Amino acid sequence: MRLDGPKPEAYMRQRDTPPQRGAPICKDGDIAMTKPAALPRVNAFSSGPCAKRPGWSLKALSDAPLGRSHRAKVGKTKLKLAIDLTREVLGVPADYRIGIVPASDTGAVEMALWSLLGARGVDMVAWESFGEGWVTDVVKQLKLTDVRTITAPYGELPNLKKVDTKTRDVVFTWNGTTSGVRVPDADWIAADREGLTICDATSAAFAQDLDWAKLDVTTFSWQKVLGGEAAHGMIILSPRAVERLLTYKPAWPLPKIFRMTSGGKLIEGIFVGETINTPSMLCVEDYIDALNWAKKVGGLAGLMKRADANTRALASWVKKTPWIDFLAVKPKTRSNTSVCLKFTDPKVVALDAAKQADFAKAVVAILEKEGAGLDLGHYRDAPPGLRIWCGATVQTRDVKALIPWIEYAFATERAKLG
Ligand SMILES: Cc1ncc(COP(=O)(O)O)c(C=O)c1O
């Protein structure tokens, strides 16, 4: 077996005591590996909450209007600024409304599902855990009957040609966080559609090019690509989505935190920072800080470039490494944020599902113990492997520094399989 770690040392004797960092280790004579000398400077690779922006410290929050009402001028101004900066950085069209809503991305998606669906048939497009969660909402909770579920297994995208984007509503996830599979574009969505598209874009926004003309409802949370705090969600509505809100009343009751209309009118305040209930002004301040940082690194183009560079660093390593591969089968569907990798070593693949998961968890445990990388295991429902967040707040040098540690952790666990 060949491993591309730094300075591999062949055929060392097995050691009884753990080696020091930089010292060579070996087991059973057939694996040579050196414990890497340098750790990533930042070892946060979680897919949410994601790494804070480079240089972040609590000082970034010092202007937060703490202890003040969010309805006071100072609070409203901050909330409006968060909305305005969102529009600026994401390039959201002027006639789309942007609201800050409760309960993170889940809150924003469910608000849309509960408020808008039922007016016509809906195509639910799902290829991983979160997309499947929205299917459950629609089929088992809302109990809609005119539902078509268009799915694909982990690693694949469903056949999007099967989706009726012309006459039906469509619910989909732009970037499937738990499989690392994304839609490459929105060309499959009809420009002259009669239904609405509802898009969970939480791990795509700020890293991938969202085609606003094709999106009627777009949601995300601050905790993903910008490394903000969770708790609040963003909902972006096209004029057609607003029209549906004004002309359609769902048959089921709507809790207050889902309500975007009152007396047949849109609650416009939501879209200028008059939130439905109390937000955390500390989180708002943090989001504003992240948006200002985004502008400094080149806005949306700069953010996408950063995520692409991180993913490229992993891709060139995967290409030359025989025992690992992307979970995403087609290169153009590979995520540049939640990069999901699977072990392809024959000895690992030969293990049963539970043992493969144990293997992946053991690799992840070594990375955590060594302080090389945190929270980069596969999602609980996803195939075993690694999920390495490559969003804009992660530095490419840290991704590169992580790689030899993955090799080291893999070699350590692989040696145990004989
Ligand atoms: C695609 C997707 N949808 C929804 C969620 C849930 O997000 P939140 O916890 O911000 O509500 C996540 C979280 O990882 C996600 O990746």
Give the SSE layout:
Blueprint: E1 24-27, E2 31-34, H1 73-90, E3 97-102, H2 104-116, E4 122-126, H3 129-141, E5 147-151, E6 169-173, E7 175-176, E8 181-182, E9 197-200, E10 217-221, E11 232-237, H4 239-247, E12 261-262, E13 265-266, H5 281-296, H6 299-320, E14 324-326, E15 338-343, H7 346-349, H8 353-369, E16 386-389, H9 396-415
Parallel strand pairs: 4-5, 4-6, 6-9, 9-10
Antiparallel strand pairs: 1-2, 3-11, 7-8, 10-11, 12-13, 14-15, 15-16
Helix pairs in contact: 1-5, 5-6, 6-9, 8-9
Global morphology: globular
**What structural class should be given to the helix and strand makeup?**
alpha/beta
Uncertain regions: pLDDT < 50 for 5+ in a row? 1-32
What is the typical, i.e. mean, pLDDT? 93
Helix percentage: 25-40%
Number of strands: 16
CATH level 1 class label of the largest domain: Alpha Beta
Largest sheet: 7 strands, mixed
State which percent range the strand residues make up. Answer: 15-25%
Number of helices: 9
CATH structural fold name of the largest domain: Aspartate Aminotransferase, domain 2
3D architecture notes:
This protein has 418 residues and is an alpha/beta fold. It has two domains: 146 residues, Aspartate Aminotransferase, domain 1 (Alpha-Beta Complex), CATH 3.90.1150; 239 residues, Aspartate Aminotransferase, domain 2 (3-Layer(aba) Sandwich), CATH 3.40.640. Helix content is 32%, strand content 16%. The chain contains nine helices and 16 strands. It has a seven-stranded mixed sheet, sandwiched between helices. It has a three-stranded antiparallel sheet with strand order 14-15-16, with helices on one face. It has a two-stranded antiparallel sheet with strand order 1-2. It starts with 23 loop residues before the first strand and ends with a helix. Bound molecules: pyridoxal-5'-phosphate. The site of pyridoxal-5'-phosphate has 13 residues, from helix 2.
